[in-house]
Amino acid sequence: MKKFLLIVFVTVLITTVSSLGIFAQEGAKTIAVIVPPVENPFFGTMQEIAAAKAEELGYKTIKLVHDDDANKQMELFETVIAQGVAAIILDNAGADATVAAVQKAKDAGIGCFLVDREITKEGVAVSQIISNNYQGATILAEYFAELMNEEGKYVELTGKDTDTNAHIRSQGYHDVLDQIPGMEMVAQQTANWSQTEGYSVMETILQQHPDIKGVICGNDTMALGAQAALLTAGRDDVICVGFDGSDDAIESILKGELKATSLQPVAEMATQAAIQADLWIRTGSTGKPEKQSIDMVLITPENADQYEKFAPKPQKKD
Amino acid sequence: MEDKATVSEFSNRDIDIIMRTENVTKVFPGIIALDGVNYNIYRGKINVLVGENGAGKSTLMKILAGNEQCTKGRIILEGEEIHINSPQDAMNYGISIIYQELDLCPNMSIAENIFLGREIVKRGIIENKIQQEHAYKLIHHLEQEMDPNTLVSELRIGAQQIVTIAKALSQDARILVMDEPTSALSTTEVEVLFRVIYELKERGITIIYISHKLDEVLHIGDNITVLRDGHIVAEEVVKNVNIEWVIEKMIGRKLERLFASKRHKIGKVLLQVEDLSLPRVGGGYIVNHVSFNLQEGEILGIYGLKGAGRSEMLECLMGANMLATGKIWLGDKEISNGTILDRIQAGLALVPEDRQRDGLVLTLSVADNMILASLEKYLNRFGLFLVSKKEKNAVHSFIKELSIKVSDPKSIVISLSGGNQQKVVLAKGLLTSPKVLMLDEPTRGIDVGAKHEVFEIMQNLAAQGYGILFVSSELKEILAMSDRILVMSKGKITGEFTKEMATEARLINASVNDK
Amino acid sequence: MREDTSTQKRRLPYFNKTDLLQLFLRGRVFLALIIVSAVFALLSPGFLSVTNIIIISKHVAINALLGIGMTFVILSGGIDLSVGSIVGLSAMIAGGLINEGIQMNTLGIILFPHTWMVIIITLIVGIIMGAINGLVITRFKVAPFIATLGMLYVARGLAGLRNNGYTFSNLVGKPEFGNTGFDRLGAGSFLGVNYSIWIMVVFALVAYFVSKRLPFGRHVYAIGGNRRTAELSGVRVNRTETIVYMISGFCSAMVGLIIASQLVAAHPATGEAFELTAIAAVVLGGTSLMGGRGSIGGTIIGAFVIGVLVDGLVVLGFSTFLQNVIKGIVIVGAIVIDQVQLRIQERIILQKQELNL
After folding, report:
1. SS3 string of B379-423?
2. Do A2 and C320 touch (CB under 8 A)?
3. Contact B123, B182 (CB under 8 A)
4. CA–CA separation, B218 vs C63, rounded Å?
5. Looking at chain C, which residue has its C-alpha nearest residue A31?
6. Hey, which residues does C120 pair with through a beta bridge?
């Protein structure tokens, strides 16, 4: 019995490993790409693009996921540092809690290239390539107000309270919407970035405030959840907008359900990170400042069909 | 024990055997429950099976009902060997068993219980109407009137028994096993049950009837089989035997020699109990204002029927029940309010009735079990940690003193035989250096040899000045061993006898006293 | 009964295949560790280098420390689902003490305790949380699963409340307050081995000793094996059980401190789902969830199996999804083998008994 299990185990292990073709790629330097849970296509796409670009540039890659757990992120860092990677591309697990891990990499002579989320300390990472969440939030809020004819009751679904981006986006929304006298926020609730929570929170809010005209969400997954709740309740009149520009959201916009989203320049950030990592490995410098901010694009039914995978469609590229 | 002389008589009279077991043996960890049993069940008769507690009756029935599988041996039904691997198999062969604890779901109706697991369905939906009609017919057939929609929890025990019988009949039972069916019934209910049993016999159903109540057994049975310590010791036609014969077969001839006797001096009062009571939830008392004392070197027997409150009284003495009231002195020290630990330290030790449930930690080794209650004795000088050597010495000395059969004290305790497990529990109690030892049914379920040894140990301890409280349901045992006997009934002490005054009749009389 | 020698004589020829198989199964966790390590060493040269072993041990330390506390709980027949949350709460308590100190509103002053005091206070908080678990379980007879599930939410909630969901960052203290050096706990090392590994070693040795050589340890085994027997044998069951949960709380607080120190930041979500990995390590180490059977040593090895597996799969670049699948199979496989071993053991007992007939 035991023997049998062992044989099964070892066979499974070896076949999987060999099929993945991990071994025997001596010579090439390695870049680790560490991101939050890839169940969210946003991070999955980011990881794929960054890794693909790095491989194109002649590197081996390790793709890892830290599950938004700073401790796990630290452990992954230690493991890849011990493995002798040349650089780390990271979408981190917390602005404060990540500093120590990045510092550790720096001490080991490994450059960290942060994308999407920043950390609170400067001079530790080589680059922090972030999308301009604030700018993205303001353009979205302006469009949202326009859709609502600058008056009426609306609801805001915010992201995880512990996440910096949740606050920045919310700030961006309010810096626009609070200036407009006709706009009245009747509820502000967190749905923890989650689609299921977005759905259930929206259901509850609809019970209390059946007279709302719009919902503005901190990301697309929550917006899709809220949109589903609205459709179930037969409220396709309510204007619902998301943030991030995921393919699911774009598809929804094309179907006429979601009304708008702000597109994260994920592809550009990820590609930039890989290019800068390569530069840094070869020359010791990226030639750019540490903090780089990339503007976001507003996606509406008019331009939605021109984007996929967090980037303009290839034929539109110049 | 190869008492098979009587068997030939049956074959002469050409009586049909519907089912028999051949050399059936069942071994449990620590217990040989059945040892080469050849049991005959006669067609269309009421087959009575008797034996002391732990003789193996229930195990034999569980094997016939498919709840246990025998370690060795064969079961032959209508001349063909069968394999009963599950209750479902037994049911298919027409064997049905009604357990002591009625296995009904109290939260469901009579009809639902009867058809539980075999619901009458049409296109996946239960046909309640049809089930109810069938249930009504079955019960009516037993000359009873009940609404099949009544919840079982609303029925009296007697009526529940009828439901179980109806359930068995609904499964077309040819052989019906009844395990202690009257233990919870009132006299009138017993009469009803007997009428039903005769009814069933008329219909040609074979019945196996197990009971402790010998007069009842002789009244209703056709054939009697006696089990003792996992062996069949006798088989007879009921009309040829009397109660004395049955008792003799049940207990065995070597009875008188079983009880080692040793003179011991009785000294000053050791344990004094005043007004010990344990209220019952929902009114009344489980232990009802009990007062007595126990002297040095005395074996005080406590007799009574099941449920008389004897074990509960010992538990109260031990401090295991927070609701108990009354006063207890051990020597000059009052221990009425002490915790279990305080009382153990003061010198009380309990050897509980159910050794596997209350006496042993089955996952631990023999040695660890023995020293469990006296760990503080094996600490090092600063009282911090345990010293293996001290533990070993204590364990070895008691393995020797009680002649516990174990090759390695580190082996797990369930690997021992029942008698040796009992001695481990005894050793655990003795290692706490008690003054008073409370033994609750110490000979239950152990073989004759081990019983003898337990009695020898008791005598030795009494001779050393221990006070011993000895609870037993076996009259012979208690009469032979005790210096003085208390009889309990319904939580009260209903009789006190010196060794000279005590007779079986007096003890039984006092034990059924309802005053 | 006076023929002990004869039974021994008869036992000898019975040291047969089943006995060997049993021996084989008893050491199964250790065997699993060796196999898993060997496979990874084969696939990834340098996997068994000293630096990598130290890193793996450092990762294992977190789970092993929780596993040590959990082992006591499970041995006693309970379960502690709150360890992960207590890790988070402890981290927040420590972080708060270092960055904000103790604010004494009535006196209008802020007291910054010394780093050692921070550690001690945090550990005490962990013990108190455990004690609350223990008291709810023993005094109010709430099932351990429920009581600690409640604590899972309460402690996680408190961790969030401590700083409104925000992280305490940059936990290095200030020299003028005399509370520097907290980060040494996570980053420092002795003889080239990180403090957290030393802490694990010390905790494991102490726990081993406690479980084997202290009356308390025996009591824990006895309660898990048969609560009623333990009670009737004079074991103070309630007290022992409460202490068991206090140990678990203590270990959780230690882990909270280590993580906060390693990250130099305290995040309220620290330690989410740690309880499950800790339980996995304990069970993998051969401790029965029914209580009464198992050992600290097993848990440490179990934690290493999981740690080596996780780190190894990371090094080989397996996807997280596949990692989870493999982890799950290993855990369940271990329990399947556990059950097989139990059945074989029972069979051996019966065999020996029949032989003695």
Report:
1. ECCCCCCECHHHHHHHHHHHHHHCCCCCCCCCCEHHHCCHHHHHH
2. no
3. no
4. 67
5. C317
6. none
CATH of region B264-347+434-515 = 3.40.50.300
The Cα–Cα gap between C46 and C44 comes to 6
Q: What is the distance in angstroms between the CA of the first residue and the CA of the last residue of chain B?
A: 43
ipTM computed for the complex:
0.76
Contacts with C, B 380-399, CB within 8 Å: 384-386
Fold type of domain B1-94+174-185+206-252: Rossmann fold (3.40.50)
Where in chain B are the domains? 1-94+174-185+206-252, 103-172, 264-347+434-515, 356-430
A311-312 and A307-308 strand pairing? antiparallel
CA distance C257 to A71: 12
Spell out the residues 6+ positions from residue B499 whose beta carbon is closer than 8 angstroms to its own: B482, B483, B484, B485
Using CB atoms, pick whichever of C25, C262, C337 lies closest to residue A74. C262
Res B117: pLDDT:
76
> Is the pair C, A in contact (3+ CB pairs within 8 Å)?
yes
- Report yes or no on chains C and B touching (3+ CB pairs under 8 A): yes
pLDDT band at B419 (very low <50, low <70, confident <90, very high): confident
CA–CA gap between residue B57 and residue B421 (Å, rounded):
21
Q: Do C262 and A83 touch (CB under 8 A)?
A: no
Q: What is the mean pLDDT of chain B?
A: 83
Q: Which long-range contacts (CB under 8 A, 24 or more apart) does B352-355 make?
A: B352/B311, B352/B314, B352/B425, B352/B440, B352/C232, B353/B311, B353/B440, B353/B441, B353/B444, B353/B471, B355/B421, B355/B422, B355/B425
Contact A187, A208 (CB under 8 A): yes
CA distance C5 to C294: 31
Contact call for A100 and C164, based on CB within 8 A: no
Q: Pick from C43, C270, C314: which is nearest to A70 by CB?
A: C270
pLDDT digits (tens, 9 = 90+) for B327-338: 999 888 888 888
The reply to whether domains B1-94+174-185+206-252 and B264-347+434-515 share a CATH topology is: yes
- Calculate the alpha carbon distances from A48 to A51, A75, A271, C315 in Å: 5, 22, 10, 18
The 10s digit of each residue's pLDDT in A249-275 is 998 999 899 999 999 888 889 999 999
Chain B contact present for C352, CB below 8 A: yes
Joined tokens for residue B466: 């221990």
Which residues of chain B from 43 to 82 reach within 8 Å of chain C, CB to CB?
71
SS3 state of residue A55: helix
Quick: pLDDT tens for C235-293: 889 999 999 999 999 999 999 999 888 888 888 888 888 999 899 999 888 888 888 88
Domains of chain C from N-terminus onward: 5-356 (1.10.3470)
Interface of A with C (CB under 8 A): 1-2, 5-6, 9-10, 12-14, 16-17, 20, 22-23, 37-38, 62-65, 67-71, 74-76, 78-80, 82-83, 94-97, 99-101, 120-121, 161-162
Pair of tokens at residue B205:
């159903």
Q: C176, C190, C22: which is closest to C101 by C-alpha?
A: C176
pTM of the model: 0.74
Collapsing DSSP to helix, strand or coil, B252 comes out as: coil
